[in-house]
Amino acid sequence: MEQLMIELNPQTTQPVVQVKNLAKAYGSNVVLRDVSLSVAEGSVTAMIGPSGAGKSTVLRCMNLLEQPDSGEIVIDGHCINAGKKTSPKSLAALRRSAGMVFQHFNLFPHMTVLRNVSLPQERVLGCSREQANEKSMELLKRMGLADKADQYPSRCSGGQQQRIAIARALALGPRVMLFDEPTSALDPEVGVEVLEVMKELASTGMTMVVVTHEMAFAENVADELVVMADGGIIEKGHPGQILKDPQHERTRRFLRAVLER
Amino acid sequence: MEMLKAIAIGLPLTVLVTILALMIGTVVALPIVAGLRSRNRLIWLMSRGLVDLLRGIPPVVWLFMLYYGISIGAVRLSALQAGVLGLGVVAAAYLAEIFRGAISAVPKGQWEASSALGFHRATVWTRIVGPQTARAAIPAYTTFAIGLLKDSSIASTIGVSEIVFMSSQYARQSGSGILVFFVAAGIYILLSVPLGLLSRHLDVKMRKAVAR
């Protein structure tokens, strides 16, 4: 037992995601300046801030959907340095460790819900179709969508589509889930379904990074709150503390805008 | 009766020229699309130039050049070969543009989701972007195919004995003038209407399944 603890310990203290000195600019338009961030195993990090602050860009840099100009990204021990050329192999490893959920779901419209969730398992993990379908059905059940398996995504509501997208990402067994404004394209009532699933996911100990405008989620579910503005992190820490007593004037202004409307 | 017989003799060649040219066009269009999408400026420029060259010269001129102008050693292209090849490469240029447009109609999010899931490039093309491109291309592709069916009559100018060739030959021999061409026109309509129907049917069916 003691030995087990010792073996487990370094893993639990090691952050799952580490971002160091990330910077990105489009010409003279600086989107990110020197962003550093680390996400502990099993924690939920919420990123908030005005639009154009660079929240989504940080998230999209984490799995290299955007190429940062400089900086380093480590996910689950897979390191990528923006300065050096990344081999397709290490890129694949990094992306396999990170599951991504998009604002606009990005499900594959020409496949049934079940195929959407199963195909990545077959292609990326090399599962057989039976294995993949079994796992997919299990996940769809967990999302409350087992009866949608044979439908096409277009026949599902936005909230259902987003939950399918979450199932699709989870099916690959990621170490961290990245959510890019998962409820921003949804009606408030439908968004709740998605937030419920995310809460359940957080309670199972999934490491999550969530870019969001849902302040209640940030306050109640997140362990760490990151406030971004103008391409940089201006404040981070315990959500309750920041929301109650923001240190930075920019944070105060933003919170006034979102909370007191 | 003689009239119908003449047209019936021409019919298989019309269909053959159309199908072969369409096949050549489809296959040759693929590397051209790759070139048009290339980030290498030289490759892009060459592909662009090729498309503009193929499209810019009238098909009948291409056929004349291939039929009368080209001899490989002592071998000259037969009328059928020149017709199929000429119409085929011109088709490739148009189809390349159709495919290029269909590919860019696939939403960016599909590429991003594929990358985020860790699909290989080959998987993205065969399973994600390819099928969606094919669906987007169907209406324009069949429109082009119907156009090609009629343009196959250009091959009559170099002596491919397809419908129009046979019709004019019959018209000259029998002296019955314009009537045979009306019948030929009817045959073309009979050929192209089902194609259009099929295309619309496929399009509607797919739209129903995947409509957003």
Automatic annotation (TrEMBL), chain B:
It is found in: Cell membrane. Residues 7-199 form the ABC transmembrane type-1 domain. Its main location: membrane. The chain crosses the membrane at residues 53-70, 77-96, 178-198. CDD domains: TM_PBP2. GO terms for cellular component: ATP-binding cassette (ABC) transporter complex. Belongs to the binding-protein-dependent transport system permease family. This is Amino acid ABC transporter permease. It comes from Arthrobacter wenxiniae.
